[in-house]
Amino acid sequence: MSFDKELDTRGMNCPLPILKTKKALADMAAGQVLKVVSTDAGSVKDMQAFANQTGNTLVSSSEEKGEYIFMMQKK
């Protein structure tokens, strides 16, 4: 999947991945997609909750070799 911006939050624990995601999305235009890479297992639930609370769309969520990859589309 294509994306407009990538955010690396590897090694960061809650709440940093969410806070960094929020900041990155603020600098993006509506409809753009942010790819977030995290090593925090808690980010799986956090990203879904963040999307529900903010109205942004969690397009996809996957896990690969201990890394969690999220595609978030800005509303």
Helix content: 25-40%
Return the CATH class: Alpha Beta
| Corresponding CATH superfamily | TusA-like domain
The gyration radius over C-alpha positions equals 11 Å
- The averaged pLDDT comes out at 97
| Total count of helical runs of at least 4 residues | 2
H/E series: EHEHEE
| Total strands | 4
What is the subunit arrangement here?
single chain
The number of domains is 1
* CATH-derived architecture: 2-Layer Sandwich
Amino-to-carboxy terminus distance:
18 Å
Description:
With 75 residues, this protein is of the alpha+beta class. The chain is 31% helix and 35% strand. It has a single domain (5-73), classed as 2-Layer Sandwich (Translation Initiation Factor IF3). The longest helix has 12 residues, at 43-54. The protein starts with a strand and ends with a strand.
In short:
31% of the residues lie in helices and 35% in strands.
Element layout with pairings:
Blueprint: E1 5-9, H1 16-26, E2 33-38, H2 43-54, E3 57-64, E4 67-73
Parallel strand pairs: 1-2
Antiparallel strand pairs: 2-4, 3-4
Descriptive keywords:
75 residues; 2 helices; 4 strands; four-stranded mixed beta sheet
